[in-house]
Every structure is written in C-alpha cells, then in structure tokens.
Amino acid sequence: MDLNQTQVAKLLFTSQTVYSRYERGVLTIPVEHLLILADFYDVSTDYILGRTNNRNVNP
C-alpha cells in the first residue's frame, strides 16, 4: 500500500522508531500489532511472518 514507517506506526499506535525495530528484527512484534497488520493488508499472519508465500487469509 506504499506506506512509510511513520504511517504504519500510527496504524499500530506506536512510534516510527519502534516499528523500525520490528522491521529490523531488533524487537519482536507483539501479537496485537501482528493482527492489526494482517487485517489491514488482508493477509494471513503466516504471510507476514514469512512462514508462507500464500497471501490468502483463507487458503
């Protein structure tokens, strides 16, 4: 959706710095944030976590 880190951080009610740390693997993303992102992008949590290449929520 072509959002920058600041925009995604707002979606998660967190700071850009914290979100950047999620992306770099410095911090583990909380389940609550993972669910928000999966719903927002309409993908499965497994897709976000890199456990599948299937974007579909219901394969």
Task: Describe what you observe in this structure.
- Helices cover 53% and strands 0% of the residues.
- The chain has 59 residues and is mainly alpha-helical.
- It has a single domain (5-48), classed as Orthogonal Bundle (434 Repressor (Amino-terminal Domain)), CATH 1.10.260.
- Helix 1 (5-11) crosses helix 2 (16-24).
Broad shape? globular
Determine the fraction of residues in helical runs and give it as a percent range.
40-55%
Strand content: under 5%
The CATH H-level superfamily is lambda repressor-like DNA-binding domains
- Sheet with the most strands? none
Radius of gyration: 11 Å
Rounded mean pLDDT is 94
CATH topology: 434 Repressor (Amino-terminal Domain)
Total E-strand runs: 0
Architecture, CATH level 2?
A: Orthogonal Bundle
CATH class: Mainly Alpha
H and E string: HHHH
Structural class: mainly alpha
Total count of helical runs of at least 4 residues: 4
Straight-line distance between termini: 22 Å
**Total domain modules:** 1
* Poorly predicted runs of 5 or more residues: none
Note the topology.
Elements (H helix, E strand, L loop, with lengths): L4 H7 L4 H9 L6 H11 L3 H4 L11
Label this structure with key terms.
globular, 434 Repressor (Amino-terminal Domain), 59 residues, mainly alpha, 4 helices
Summarize this, please?
With 59 residues, this protein is an all-alpha fold. It is 53% helix and 0% strand.
